[in-house]
Design a protein that fits this description.
Elements (H helix, E strand, L loop, with lengths): L12 H8 L13 E9 L9 E10 L2 E11 L10 H4 L12 H12 L3 E4 L2 H14 L9 E3 H5 L17 H7 L10 H19 L7 H5 L1
Length: 218
């Protein structure tokens, strides 16, 4: 339940600017598309009870990660869960500059625009982001979403002897593609690992016939 209900007419200007980007038809040329690969660090796994602590993201176009255009913000800790500090290392009154949840959502919408969102186990990150938007009376994100855990399985050769697992962790993908896990469990670090894994997956899938965004979304 949002804090207050907003009608389309009184939605904030930053939301209207974000929404207007989706009136344009996206190119069907894969190399013209912009991807925003993201990760969130949170106080736990409940969409309603837990909160986002940080959001990290990188942009990809023409299969190049733009390291000059990254997104890395920390949110004020409305809630604190000491049980998860050992995972993300973010203390309630740590030294980092933090901003409010609504400011974080505004900055994220300005960064992501109408890009295609990529995340590992994307349902969780999208759920946390959409719930945060809902708390402030805003609609859900409109972006197309790709899950590296799902599209990775498209690279695997199925056989009677070897069946793909139902889920692959980010650590498993990092190991399979020999990606450094130096900054694992920071939002920006995990976003970068996911971005490299995404490019490796795309490289494999491009070897197949009829590769397209549509084929990734199936």
């Amino acid at each position: 339940m949002g804090l207050f209900k907003k009608t389309p007419k009184n939605l904030p200007e930053f939301w209207k600017s974000y929404e207007s980007l989706f009136k344009e038809t996206q190119s069907k040329n894969f190399d013209d598309l912009v991807f925003v690969v993201l990760d969130t660090e949170t106080t736990g796994f409940s969409f309603e009870e837990d909160r986002i602590l940080s959001i990290g993201a990188v942009k990809i176009k023409k299969e190049i990660i733009s390291v000059q255009d990254v997104f890395d913000i920390y949110l004020e800790q409305e809630k604190f869960n000491k049980e998860t500090v050992h995972v993300h290392g973010l203390l309630k009154n740590g030294p980092r500059d933090c901003i409010s949840e609504i400011s974080a959502m505004q900055k994220f919408l300005e960064y992501v625009g109408n890009a295609i969102i990529v995340a590992h186990h994307a349902g969780f990150d999208m759920g946390m982001l959409n719930t945060a938007l809902e708390r402030h009376g805003l609609p859900k994100l409109k972006n197309t979403v790709l899950d590296t855990g799902v599209i990775y399985k498209k690279t695997l050769i199925k056989s009677y002897l070897v069946q793909p697992k139902s889920n692959y962790s980010l650590d498993e993908l990092a190991e399979k593609f020999s990606i450094s896990r130096k900054d694992r469990h920071t939002a920006l670090g995990d976003a970068y690992i996911t971005a490299v894994a995404f490019l490796k997956i795309i490289s494999r899938l491009k070897e197949k016939k009829n590769f397209s965004l549509k084929s990734l979304l199936k």
